[in-house]
Specification:
heterodimer, A: 731 residues, alpha+beta, Beta-galactosidase, Chain A, domain 5, TIM Barrel, 8-stranded parallel beta sheet, globular, B: 669 residues, Neuraminidase, 3 domains, 4-stranded antiparallel beta sheet, 17 helices, elongated
């Protein structure tokens, strides 16, 4: 699930040879230039005459330059002027002609020639025609890049919270078969800053959220380029697998932000449509240029490698049909107290709520949740047959829950289907006989509900488990553009169902579950895995898959929990599982921040990954408390060693006998801290000292977490080493 | 000395305590688990930081006894000294060094440096003044044609220098501080493969010289512990032999470790833990006996995630942290031990010092976290064994897959049982024998069992029963019995088939039933039934066919039917004794291993003999004809296999070719 394609500068920047001399000169001037030349910030608050005011609201004025499509936005609240590009190049900027043109133009494109070689051109450095027509609160423009006969339209409009930009698919035209549209870059230098001239940071949707603080130099060697929702499996065909290296978190929400001088001015970029083909490109200052900037690029055609034999020879070609989607994005501007990552998160939360994409999950239980995922069992091969190895029967689960006495458990049953976890789930509700009967299941789920908890069956609706009976490889699985089946792995190796097979299987099973029981479903993979299908009988693109999933999953009034779902399913999510406890640890990011927890806090309960697998339990539990994450455990009744010979042997510790006592203690401790802020939004998050953090909730309560080995003392308050404290009032 | 050092280490560890990194580990940590396989586990270390330093291709890093860290800045021709905050506090060797690649610092602060450009050893005092510099030893004992290409160096308590010279086949070069050659130390041995043996047999001296001479690889790095035991790693050799631990006399103590064949550096800490890093950025941690505790890390392929390495050259343990020097990043990457690994380490330290009982609670805690850590079972089993809790020890040694420990515990248990019941068992046996002889005597007189005998005689009229009884005839009269088969008097195809099935069943069952001590498999799930069945059925099938075909063209009289039946009956020792031997193995310990191996060998020899007699009698051959027939049959079997393989390859190629054409056509339309 590697979703960040990191490209070296060599691959993406193909400066024309004409400018290479100039490039050398520029490089020399960078080396020779006095170091503080780069510090000067040339952004003036004056608007050049080429910009015309095209729209105005109570809060903003929008000015557009009709020759480059660059815009300037005046925030009347703070009188701060935002620039979509660089007006004036100064020494030390390290921008060559191509980058200057890129910085000045509102739109740039990347085209692919007949040999699938890519190059980037901008309005400012290539022959083009540009028609700009005024529309309501903005302009509509159509740019045609004459040499390549590629035409792209764009709508730029002022709206209540900022600027809306749309690239409608209908406006895109490829007139010359020799040149295909690869990417469209939208306002790449909006809010760009020179080195460390302005304090502030860029916010990335990396794990729980992460910041790159502005600085003159960076530890990065490459730019950070990554697809929202991960790479398209329809193009890359199989998920890369390396047993040594873990997969980074994929970017599950199409959002980024920039803050200029924290708590002064900031904006948040949100993609409303087209994120499935969107790519976030981040340049910290010091790589190629002296600017910090990040932006969205939209992908219309991708080159791919078509192997023509099994030894790997083949050709690189471009996909035949462009990706059909409308790209809509919003720049939402913030000032004052809101101009930081907490403000951005709260603004995003507000955006989701307003657009009906996030709902407050009402729950009257006064206690926090705890996720207990039980493994029913899995099969083991004995001689030539499969034998079911029972790990937790319904009776045993009931016993364990009675023993634990937790007031709000979120119980998930994994491996409930006949022959257990790595067998295909049936299309109607059938339990593995050794685990119990449907009526026992009903009794158990009723009992859990009566005790204030929830019960869900685990299901990965997309996965066609590798070499398992129960589906047809010929008809039911999705195909990559290279005509091979999509392959991946989640808890086991699997192929992926076509939309049709997925719908058919999911609707019958979920309808049966809804008819027979009052339980929920814990849906794995479908929340985060988004692939296109190039099967010629029923092709599906990623944008359409999003809509199809939403319709399918909204169909029945089942309680749904998702494992690390992408933004588009948050509206259907009643429990968020496997919340990241931090970021991916890229060496150029400055710190991890709880962006995603703040977005969800008060709306959807979110649970962490199973603590069994944690190596620093106390630190990880403290992170739970800091971010408001509820705990999770993976449990079996039997000793873990019993399933050594099953495919579920990746679960290396799970026995209730080993974990029971700790679960009780952990829950008690966390419930005391987090129950008073249950259902409350997070309104502030700050660092009090190195290793000491404070999270403030809407009801005024504050939780202070101390990760250090020493007590933290402020005034009358002492937070013990490696502990947390709940305050009635903000410090 | 030791205490001062620990204190310093503690101070360093404390000085870097801060906020934990809020990132997911970029790697999965693995531990040695059941079946000598790697299993995932909780992280043992989490990435802490990457400290970029003004270095150029640094090759070596050394934690000196004074707690300072020394780095050989190879590209800049200097040594730098870093304090606990990674600030450069001193520089050494400018103007003297050109390309320092090996470095050792003793407790006085004296620096011993191997310079790869000048090919000399440089010794500097704590202020950086030159004490001595010397190159190739002049002693004739060093060897007239031996080059002196020093790359790595370590120094023992008596100030003997151990130097790795690039390409040296004689092992480490031992010198004193004056540059006098003392001798060679701990040479690696050269491996001789079958191919090399064949080359030696058939090639002339000149041809052999064309090949690269088969010489022992020279070690790639070196470390020394506080007892002056020298550790070396060798890259480019068998990954299970790549770590060596030498006694003072140069004997290797580690015969098998789970290692890598491209190790870069090794570090040994006084508290009983060994660290290595390989060229792929993998970090290995062992106890001092070479038992693998953890593997983690990985290659930075441009993702730039903290904790992945590009080109590691040196590793050191500093307190609870691991420091790795990366030559491409020009940085030190640091890792912090986790709560989980700390527990295991505490246990290992006690265990290595022989405090088995004291170590036990730590290991039990480790198993609470992860029940697959074999090391923990081994340690607890040792503790149980020492406490005389043999039943428990037996079970734990079984988990730890320790055959020796299991055998010893079993011996103790068996001994107790024998002592307790031997007398009464002998009594029962004796009583049984008396009763039986008395019964026999009376039975002879009164014929009590006559009805049974009559029924048995009637049963023998059934063909299959007769076939079964016929089998026992082969024990005493094999030659006559084959003659009966040839004359179609006794034996049937149906029963021959049953024997083959029986052989198959015995084969599979004995795999499961043989004692863990003698089974090639540590755990039953490693047994691949399909493979075993194939490896049993295929030779039998090929032998029958080959033997028959060869006989038809070399005047053999036997028909296919006779060959099949004859072969089946030849296998009777396996059918009769295979299972009992497997069962008896469960009563034996490693001390009685000869009983198991000898009875097995006897059984196979018997089968071989039966087959020879079978070929001779069925085809009516002379002895020399029999031998010829057997050899040609074996050759034919080999030809069958070869032909099958060639056909498989050819059809595979054809399939690929057609597939490629179809795909290309599909792409071009």
């Amino acid at each position: 699930m590697t979703n960040f394609n990191l490209l070296t500068p060599r691959d993406t920047v193909r400066a024309p040879y004409r400018v290479s001399l100039l490039l050398i000169f520029l490089c020399l001037s960078v080396i020779l230039a006095p170091p503080d030349a780069a510090r000067a910030d040339s952004h003036s608050q004056e608007i050049p005459t080429s910009y015309q005011m095209v729209a105005e609201t109570d809060l903003f004025q929008l000015y557009v330059d009709s020759s480059t499509l660059g815009f300037k936005l005046l925030d009347k609240r703070s009188s701060y002027l935002w620039h979509s590009g660089i007006d004036e190049i100064i020494e030390g900027d390290r921008l060559n002609n191509s980058w200057q043109a890129f910085a000045r133009s509102g739109i740039s494109i990347e085209y692919l020639d007949a040999r699938a070689v890519n190059r980037r051109v901008s309005i400012a450095n290539t022959e083009h025609t540009l028609e700009v027509t005024p529309i309501d609160q903005g302009v509509s423009a159509q740019v045609t890049f004459l040499e390549y006969d590629i035409s792209v339209g764009i709508l730029l409009q002022l709206e209540a919270d900022g600027v809306r930009v749309e690239v409608p698919f209908a406006s895109i035209r490829e007139g010359n078969t020799g040149f295909r549209l690869g990417r469209v870059y939208v306002y790449p230098f909006l809010g760009a800053t020179r080195g460390g001239s302005v304090p502030g940071y860029m916010l990335l949707p990396d794990g729980s959220g992460s910041l790159i603080r502005f600085a003159d130099t960076t530890r990065a060697e490459n730019m950070f380029y990554g697809r929202y929702y991960g790479p398209d499996l329809g193009i890359i065909a199989s998920q890369p697998y390396d047993p040594l290296v873990t997969n980074p978190y994929q970017m599950s929400f199409p959002v980024f932000g920039i803050a200029h001088s924290e708590e002064q001015n900031a904006f948040l970029s949100v993609i409303e449509k087209g994120a499935a083909y969107g790519e976030l490109q981040v340049h910290p200052a010091g790589i190629i240029t002296n600017f910090n900037f990040l932006y969205n690029a939209f992908i219309y055609n991708e080159p791919y490698f078509q192997a023509t034999n099994r030894s790997g020879a083949g050709v690189t070609v471009v996909q035949r049909q462009p990706n059909d989607f409308d790209a809509v994005m919003h720049y939402r501007f913030l000032t004052g107290d809101e101009a930081n990552y907490v403000g951005m998160a709260r603004n995003y939360q507000q955006y989701l709520v307003e657009n009906d994409r996030l709902h407050r999950i009402e729950d009257s239980n006064p206690n926090i949740g705890i996720r207990l995922e039980f493994l029913g069992g899995d099969k083991e091969k004995i001689l030539f047959w499969n034998r079911f190895v029972s790990m937790t029967t319904l009776g045993q689960m009931s016993e364990i829950l009675t023993g634990l006495q937790l007031p709000n458990p979120d119980v998930i049953y994994y491996g409930w289907q006949p022959l257990g976890a790595t067998s295909m789930p049936p299309t109607s509700l059938t339990l593995e006989g050794a685990l119990g009967s449907i009526s026992e299941l009903r009794d158990l789920s009723d009992q859990i509900a009566a005790d204030g908890g929830h019960f869900s069956l685990y299901l990965d609706p997309q996965g066609a488990l590798w070499e398992e009976p129960g589906y047809s490889v010929r008809n039911d699985v999705a195909m990559a553009i290279t005509n091979v089946s999509l392959e991946g792995y989640n808890r086991y190796y699997n192929l992926f169902f076509t939309l049709d097979a997925l719908q058919r299987r999911y609707s019958t099973l979920s309808a049966d579950v809804a008819a027979q029981l009052d339980v929920g479903l814990a849906l794995d993979n479908i929340g985060s895995m988004l692939y296109s299908d190039f099967r010629s009988s029923a092709p599906l693109n990623r944008e359409d898959a999003i809509e199809a999933y939403r319709t399918l999953l909204a169909d029945l009034p089942l309680r749904l929990g998702f494992y690390r779902p992408n933004d588009y399913l948050l509206g259907l999510t009643q429990a968020y599982y496997d919340m990241p406890l931090g970021n991916n640890g890229y060496i150029y990011t400055s710190e991890a921040v709880p962006f995603l927890p703040i977005v969800l806090a008060g709306y959807v309960p979110y649970y962490g990954g199973a603590i069994n697998f944690s190596s620093n339990q106390q630190d990880d539990l403290l992170r739970h408390v800091e971010y408001g994450i509820y705990p999770s455990y993976f449990l079996t009744h039997e000793a873990t060693a019993n399933m050594l010979n099953t495919r579920s042997n990746w679960i290396y510790t799970s026995s209730y006998a080993q974990w029971g006592e700790q679960i009780r203690q952990t829950y008690q401790w966390m419930n005391a801290l987090l129950a008073p802020v249950r259902g409350q939004e997070i309104i502030a998050h700050e660092t009090l000292a190195e290793g000491v953090f404070a999270t403030t909730y809407a009801n005024g309560r504050q939780i202070i977490v101390n990760y250090t080995d020493f007590p933290f003392v402020r005034g009358e308050i002492t937070v013990e080493a490696k502990n947390a404290l709940l305050l009635e009032n903000r410090l | 000395m030791k205490r001062v050092l620990s204190l310093l280490v503690l101070l360093i560890a404390l000085s870097v305590t801060g906020t934990p990194v809020m990132a997911v580990s970029p790697y999965t940590t693995w531990t040695l688990g059941p079946g000598d396989e790697l299993w995932p586990t909780q992280d043992a270390y989490t990435p802490l930081d990457q400290i970029d330093l003004p270095l150029s291709g640094p090759e070596e890093m050394f934690l000196a006894p004074d707690g300072f860290l020394y780095v050989a800045d190879t590209g800049n021709g200097r040594i730098i000294k870093l304090d606990a905050e990674f600030q450069i506090t001193a520089e050494f060797g400018q103007g003297i060094l050109e390309s320092p690649t090996g470095l050792f610092v003793d407790e006085d602060g004296t620096l011993y440096i191997a310079d790869a450009d000048k090919n000399t050893i440089v010794i500097l005092d704590a202020n950086g003044s030159l004490i001595n510099e010397f190159g190739r030893p002049s002693e004739p004992l060093f060897g007239a044609n031996r080059a002196f290409l020093p790359r790595k160096i370590t120094v023992d308590a008596r100030k003997n220098l151990y130097i790795i010279s690039e390409g040296s086949v004689d092992g480490l070069i031992m010198m004193n501080t004056n540059g006098n050659f003392i001798g060679y130390f701990g040479a690696n041995s050269a491996d001789m493969s079958l191919k090399m043996v064949l080359q030696r047999l058939f090639l002339t001296e000149e041809q052999l010289d064309q090949f690269i001479r088969n010489e022992a690889a020279s070690p790639s790095n070196i470390a020394i512990d506080n007892q002056s035991l020298v550790y070396t790693i060798t890259s480019g050799t068998d990954s299970n032999q790549s770590i060596r631990k030498f006694t003072v006399s140069g004997r290797n103590l580690l015969d098998w470790t789970f290692g890598s064949n491209n190790f870069r550096d090794i570090s040994v800490s006084e508290d009983g833990l060994l660290l290595t890093v390989d060229a792929d950025g993998l970090i290995f941690e062992y106890d001092l006996d070479g038992t693998l505790l953890f593997i983690f890390g990985g290659q930075d392929r441009g993702d730039q995630r903290l904790g992945l390495l590009s080109n590691p050259t040196a590793i050191e343990r500093v307190g609870d942290d691991i420091y790795v020097l990366d030559k491409d990043k020009n940085a030190i990457v640091t890792y912090r031990v986790t709560d989980f690994a700390r527990k295991l380490h505490d246990g290992v330290r006690l265990y290595m010092d022989g405090f088995y009982t004291e170590a036990r609670p730590y290991f039990e805690d480790v198993l609470n976290y992860n029940g697959l850590v074999v090391m923990a079972y081994q340690a607890i089993a040792n503790a149980a064994y020492r406490q005389g809790d043999y039943a428990n020890a037996l079970e734990l040694f079984r988990y730890a897959e320790s055959r020796r420990g299991y055998s010893e515990s079993f011996w103790e248990l068996r001994n107790t049982i024998l002592q307790q019941y031997l007398g009464s068992a002998l009594g029962v046996l004796f009583g049984g024998w008396i009763a039986l002889s008395v019964f026999t005597r009376f039975e002879r007189r009164y014929n009590w069992l006559e009805p049974l005998r009559r029924r048995a005689r009637e049963a023998q009229k059934i063909r299959l029963v007769d076939d079964f009884i016929f089998m026992f005839r082969f024990i005493k009269q094999p030659v006559d019995s084959f003659y009966y088969i040839k004359q179609n008097l006794r034996g049937s195809l149906l029963f021959a088939f049953l024997i083959y099935v029986w052989v198959l069943i015995v084969r599979v069952l004995s795999l499961y039933l043989t004692s863990f001590l003698f089974s090639p498999y540590s755990t039953s799930w490693q047994i691949q039934v399909e493979t075993e069945v194939t490896y049993t059925v295929l030779p039998l099938l090929l032998w029958n066919v080959a033997n028959y075909l060869v006989a038809t063209i070399s005047d053999g009289e036997g028909r296919l039917r006779h060959v099949i039946i004859g072969n089946a009956y030849s296998l009777f020792p396996y059918v009769l004794f295979g299972l009992p031997i497997a069962l008896i193995s469960n009563l034996l310990t490693l001390n009685e291993v000869f009983i198991y191996t000898f009875s097995n060998q006897l059984m196979w020899f018997w089968i071989g003999l039966m087959i020879v007699i079978m070929v001779k009698e069925i085809h009516n051959y002379s002895v020399s004809e029999t031998m010829r027939n057997i050899l040609i049959s074996l050759f034919t079997m080999a030809m069958f296999v070869l032909t099958g393989y060639i056909l498989y390859v050819l059809f595979n190629q054809l399939y690929e070719f057609i597939l490629a054409i179809i795909q290309e056509v599909g792409l071009r339309d």
